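Thread: quick sanity check before group meeting

JM: Hey all, I'm pulling together slides for Thursday and realized we never actually wrote out the predicted structure for the chain we discussed last week. Dropping the sequence here so it's in one place. If anyone has concerns about the input, flag it before I start.
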Amino acid sequence: MIRRRELMLAAAAAGSGSMAGLASASSAPEAEMTTHSRSSAQGFRLALGGGAAKAFAHIPILEVMDDLGVKPVEIAGTSMGSILGAFYASGMSGREIRQFAVDLFTQKTQLLQKLFLTDGRTWSSLFNVVRPAIIDPIVLFETVFPEDLAEQFSDLKLPMKIVATDFYTQSQVVLEEGPLLPAIAASSALPMLLTPVRIDGQVLIDGGFVNPTPFDVFQDDGIPTVAVDVTGSNFEERKSGLPTGLETWIGSFSITLHSLVAAKLACNQPDLLIEPPVGRFKTMEFFKVADIVKAAEPAGETFKRGLASLLENR
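JM (edit): ok, ran it. Output follows.
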């Protein structure tokens, strides 16, 4: 159980935005504080990694923040991490996000009704076999996302960075201004499935190819970083026989993500790394959302203890 002093620290983190606003009214000695000492009191930043369906494991982390009454001062997200992070930064609670995700993927009739595109668009606007990929992610997300998702980055209640990959320069692109939905779509545009997204002349695909768990995109100013990585797999149950073509394609992408995260961690570490135990789930098992969230709940408790310790030691 978190002690009172730890909860007070958490409350201070939640109020960091107000603290920033008071900076201009501070006294002369306070104004002479170093950047590091000032930022240390301003909470934490949160990086939510990609991993397709396994990224539903982020939801218990968001719920714990609500229970503690804390908010990160900034969020970064890749792929599904950008989707869930954008929901949260738009003002949805962790429990609301859980309910939305479970309802979306367990009420299949309702999901199909949403995909009938009753706003006048045709199925060809969503599914088109002659495009670079089958599904237009912007049309898909407009169809199924909550109506109260922020339209612009500037409309978000929490600052956010979204990571995508520039296909032609093979480099990382960090999006943090302009329309929000195209940025999420770009970060989630898994090749062969979702069409690349063009933003400011750049052709963008899934951010997992360059930065699956983007804990290193924040400004280095002393504010601690919490990263939630969901790229791990559980190899205890080895199967015999060859995987299908689809399993090979998706599995290869998962291997790439996990290898990239491992290489990054060998060079640099977030202040707190959370790895929810959801490796036994397959990347595309979206209809197991309730099971994935349930399996990740122990990671919420790990996050709670780790965050309390992290803020106390700052």
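AS: nice. The chain has 13 helices and eight strands. The mean pLDDT is 82.
JM: adding both to the slides.
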